[in-house]
Amino acid sequence: MNKNTRVIVQGITGREGSFHTQQMLKYGTKIVAGVTPGKGGTQVNSVPVYDTVKDAMKEHEADASIIFVPARYAVDAIYEAVDAGIKLIVTITEHIPVLDMARAIKYARARGARIIGPNCPGIIAPEESLVGILPARAFKKGKIGIVSRSGTLTYEVSELLKNSGMGQSTVIGIGGDPIIGTSTLEVAKMFDQDPETEKIVVIGEIGGTMEERLAEAYKRGEIKKPIIAYIAGMTAPREKRMGHAGAVVYMGMGTFESKIRAFKEAGIPIANTPYDIPKLLLS
Questions:
Q1: How high is the pLDDT of residue 235?
Q2: pTM of full prediction above 0.70
Q3: Which of 13, 24, 60, 90 has the greatest number of C-beta atoms within 10 Å?
């Protein structure tokens, strides 16, 4: 994603869609159209609105879509974007049923489209383009790639880096649901191939095995660039959901300890708190 990425906003006429469209435009994002069924022919923040993504694509070229559609309709919005040929779909909506999301991700992947999220804060290429709900003040252009399961920590860590004199190449909040479109490992591998990224920060949390799989890949030499990791949830009780739908430890899988052990065995430095991340990057 860069300053030339053309974006469609699905759900642009709703409160969230309208507000964040304004913020993204202010940041410089090239938003070419919005979509809300029944609102075609209107405008939001001077952006033309269409009834369907297909209608919008007849008039505009678009590379990405961001979805603010309510949960009960959000999966249909994803299918609509995929069928219209959009290759990057950032899904901000939360509370999408897990099975519906699993089917939508499989459908998108089979057609060469990538989903970020759901229940995510989006993507930012600092000083170029924002496709999400991240606060612009926390970012500046630089060489650190950040991938995070936590929305809040995504921008809190970015701001810590900024205050320490370090900017970011791209920052991606992948979402904290049990089923998401793009994993930590996939993003880390993309950063590894990205000439604009020198080091990678991975912000994980309890639940699932994404962090362990990334550590194994790093151990096998599949990722060459330096990684710094932080895992949230050290004191979270077991068998109890903590914040994110995916942040649950069942039957000992995806524990804080197993993730820390995996990173240590892979030789990846681990931050005890978010405040340690800038120090580890500079050391």
A1: 60
A2: yes
A3: 90
Which residue of the set 20, 60, 95, 244 is catalytic?
244
What pLDDT sits at residue 252? 54
φ and ψ at 179, to 5 degrees?
-115, 115
For range 240-247, the mean pLDDT: 60
Q: With residue 221 as reference, give the H or E element that holds it.
A: none
* Cβ neighbours for 245, distance < 8 A, ≥ 6 positions apart: 98, 119, 176, 177, 178
DSSP 225-258: S-EEEEEE-TTPPTTS--SSTT---BTTBT-HHH
Beta strands in 77-220 (DSSP E): 88-91, 114-116, 122-125, 129-132, 141-148, 168-173, 199-205
